């Protein structure tokens, strides 16, 4: 499966978590590098998306659409810094 | 635009539609609540079926600035869920749900202090956000040098052909991979690492670089750029593919 850029998940993150990831910086919980989330690798399917670190491919975030709720797992991100708009 | 705006959902109405290429349509949407967008931003289009099933896809915005008229150019992926509807069924006056403007990453804003050259590199319909940037540059009297390298199959597949040929502040090179226009000095063929280097600003001029196209195209170009010595931090990419 080929990947897109984290930038492509802007709408999904804004809609489900209220976060603008195109202006956000995060620390990968696996390799501990600080990265622009817009540059991370995004894998998109009909049920949701997975964001992986561009360096170590560690899973940063998973968002799954369920019929009545959204499941979000951000445990792969040590922290996120989000620009105020 | 001086400050970024928060993305939200809007209802747009189709003001006009016309054939853009053999497989794509240009849609002009009137979105009364649209706050304007930086050049290169995208939006999500959401379609809802009578049974409540929803499908959402991202499209780059070809227009920019403080306007409520939003231009999209949508290429049809025949097996897609959304693009065939937008290309064939959506009619003048129809309403469409759009979410945006999205993306503060793959954008060019004239207020940025960086005046280094800007290199735009497009594969196929990936030209849409880069076209928006070139038009935004056109509105500025004095700014960075712009170049656009556009790889496309045939002359009939060129998006914004008329507008691209009218640009005066961006040097445009169109490379046809399958068939060249009649009388073209360059035979059709894909870019090679050697020909590519002739079409882009050299690494010594430290250009900012925006690359948009299908994932394999972007991967190839990014690899060549790094081999030519360009700084990875100066390269921004927007891949697309798959689900249309």
Describe this structure in words.
- The complex is a heterodimer of chains A (85) and B (244).
- By secondary structure, chain A is mainly beta.
- Chain A has one domain (4-81).
- Chain A has 1 helix and 8 strands.
- In chain A, strand 4 and strand 5 form a beta hairpin.
- Chain A is globular.
- The mean pLDDT of chain A is 93.
- Chain B has 244 residues and is of the alpha/beta class.
- Chain B has 2 domains: 8-102, Translation factors (Elongation Factor Tu (Ef-tu), domain 3), CATH 2.40.30.10; 118-240, Rossmann fold (3-Layer(aba) Sandwich), CATH 3.40.50.80.
- Chain B has a 6-stranded antiparallel sheet with strand order 4-3-6-1-2-5. Chain B has a 5-stranded parallel sheet with strand order 9-8-7-10-11, with helices on both faces.
- Chain B is globular.
- The chains are: A mainly beta (85), B alpha/beta (244).
- The interface between A and B is medium-sized, with 21 and 26 residues.
Secondary-structure element series of chain A: EHEEEEEEE
Shape of chain B: globular
User: Mean of the pLDDT scores of chain A?
Assistant: 93
Spans of chain A of 5+ residues with little confidence (pLDDT < 50)? none
What average pLDDT do the residues of chain B reach?
94
* Radius of gyration of chain A over all CA atoms, rounded: 12 Å
- Rg of chain B, Å, rounded: 18 Å
Distance between the termini of chain B: 30 Å
CATH-level-4 superfamily name of the largest domain in chain B = Nucleotide-binding domain of ferredoxin-NADP reductase (FNR) module
Question: What is the H/E order of chain B?
Answer: EEEEEHEEHEHEHEHE
Structural class of chain B: alpha/beta
Chain pair with largest interface: A-B, 21 and 26 residues
The largest sheet of chain A is: 5 strands, antiparallel
> How much helix is in the residues of chain B?
10-25%
How much of the sequence lies in strands of chain A comes to 35-45%
**Low-confidence region ranges of chain B:** none
């Amino acid at each position: 499966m080929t990947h897109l850029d984290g930038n492509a998940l802007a709408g999904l993150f804004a809609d489900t978590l209220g976060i603008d990831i195109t202006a956000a910086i995060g620390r990968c919980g696996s390799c501990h590098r600080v990265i622009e989330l817009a540059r991370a690798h995004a894998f998109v399917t009909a049920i949701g998306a997975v964001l992986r670190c561009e360096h170590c491919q560690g899973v940063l975030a998973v968002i799954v659409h369920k019929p009545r709720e959204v499941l979000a797992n951000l445990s792969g991100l040590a922290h996120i810094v989000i620009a105020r708009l | 635009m001086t400050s970024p705006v928060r993305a939200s959902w809007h209802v747009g109405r189709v003001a006009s539609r016309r054939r853009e290429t053999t497989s794509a349509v240009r849609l002009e949407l009137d979105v009364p609540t649209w706050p304007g967008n930086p050049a290169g931003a995208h939006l999500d289009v959401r379609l809802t079926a009578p049974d409540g099933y929803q499908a959402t896809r991202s499209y780059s915005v070809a227009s920019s600035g403080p306007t409520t008229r939003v231009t999209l150019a949508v290429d049809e992926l025949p097996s897609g869920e959304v693009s065939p509807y937008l290309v064939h069924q959506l009619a003048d006056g129809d309403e469409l749900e759009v979410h945006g403007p999205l993306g503060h990453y793959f954008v060019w804003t004239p207020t940025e202090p960086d005046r280094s050259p800007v290199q735009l590199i497009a594969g196929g319909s990936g030209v849409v956000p880069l076209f928006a940037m070139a038009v935004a540059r056109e509105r500025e009297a004095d700014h960075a040098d712009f170049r656009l390298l556009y790889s496309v199959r045939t002359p009939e597949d060129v998006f914004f052909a008329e507008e691209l040929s009218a640009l005066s502040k961006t040097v445009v090179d169109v490379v046809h991979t399958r068939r060249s226009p009649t009388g073209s000095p360059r035979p059709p063929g894909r870019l090679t690492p050697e020909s590519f280097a002739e079409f882009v600003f050299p690494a010594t001029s430290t250009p900012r670089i925006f690359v948009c196209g299908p994932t394999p195209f972007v991967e190839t170009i990014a690899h060549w750029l790094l081999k030519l010595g360009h700084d990875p931090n100066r390269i921004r990419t927007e891949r697309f593919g798959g689900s249309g």
